[in-house]
Amino acid sequence: MVSFFTKRGELLIAEQLAVSAWAPTQVGGHAVCGLLARQLETHCPTGFVPARLTVDLFKPVSTAPIEVRSEVVRQGTRITAADAFIVQDEQVRARASVVFLTTGSEPAGRVWSPVLDLPVPPEGCVSPLGSPPLFKSSDREWTHDFATNQNGDRKNAWHSLPALVDGEPISPFQRAAVLGDTANLICHWGSEGAGYINADMTLTLSRLPLGYELGLRADNAVASEGISIGTATLYDRKGPLGTCVVTALSNARRQIDFAAFSPL
């Protein structure tokens, strides 16, 4: 069965799905975020849900065996915080922090919220076991074709992910974390390809995803002097569930031409 990683004892080995589009010897940020979420959710107390995950991608994670460490920073009655680290050669390559919150009743009263246009493709268009992503540019139709979506229009993406680690079902939190990193692509994919690389990713969740399908809609990209902030809405067939924010650095000399990219 296809997966992002396989286990070798306590270590994790990157498979092709985890490899970065920037370099064949590096693990992509999407897979890094998924692994850190997998480790952190082991610290989620009963009655709590993950509400915020921040991942700092400050050093390349190689395709060598990966160790993931974690610790609880604070466990309270309403808020729990934990940290996780990806370690290779005794060096921390990436780190993450998570905040778990207790659920409860909604406060009384009406609060403004926007009416969001969150398009979804037809039912059954992707497999529960994982399928290549679908993309939608502006008012065009959904398609798996990367070349059709290499343009300067606003983008949506729709994903069904395989297992993060072979032999384990992918959890809703892992799905959300993997997709959070791809906000970079949705917000920064233009007519000449993708030219920004993530320095970090922050995912906020009001609830966990329902079902195996998950979408992203580009909301904003603010760029100046090679630094860009991209913001996207994370949603499923029931509606919005969170926001993804990435801080990205220009990587123009190694820009990825997604028109020549073929999904696995």
Describe the structure concisely.
The chain has 264 residues and is mainly β. It has three helices and 15 strands.
Features:
264 residues, mainly beta, Porin, ten-stranded antiparallel beta sheet, three-stranded mixed beta sheet, 3 helices, 15 strands, globular
Our Rg estimate from Cα atoms comes to 18 Å
- The top-level CATH class is Mainly Beta
Counted up, domains total: 1
Largest sheet: 10 strands, antiparallel
Second rung of CATH, namely the architecture:
Beta Barrel
Helix coverage percent? 10-25%
Count of beta strands: 15
Number of helices in the DSSP assignment: 3
Please give the order of strands in the largest beta sheet. 4-5-6-3-12-15-14-13-8-7
- Shape descriptor: globular
Question: What is the N-to-C order of secondary-structure elements (H for helix, E for strand)?
Answer: EEHEEEEEEEHHEEEEEE
* Structural class by helix and strand composition: mainly beta
Q: What is the CATH topology?
A: Porin
Low-confidence stretches: none
CATH H-level homologous superfamily name: Acyl-CoA thioesterase, double hotdog domain
Distance between the termini: 13 Å
Q: What fraction of residues sit in β-strands?
A: 35-45%
Mean pLDDT: 95
Protein described:
The chain has a ten-stranded antiparallel beta sheet. The protein has a three-stranded mixed beta sheet with strand order 2-1-9, with helices on one face. The mean pLDDT is 95. It is mainly beta. Helix content is 11%, strand content 43%. The protein has a single domain, classed as Acyl-CoA thioesterase, double hotdog domain (Porin), CATH 2.40.160.210. Strand 5 and strand 6 form a beta hairpin. It is built from three helices and 15 strands. The protein starts with a strand and ends in a 14-residue tail after the last strand.
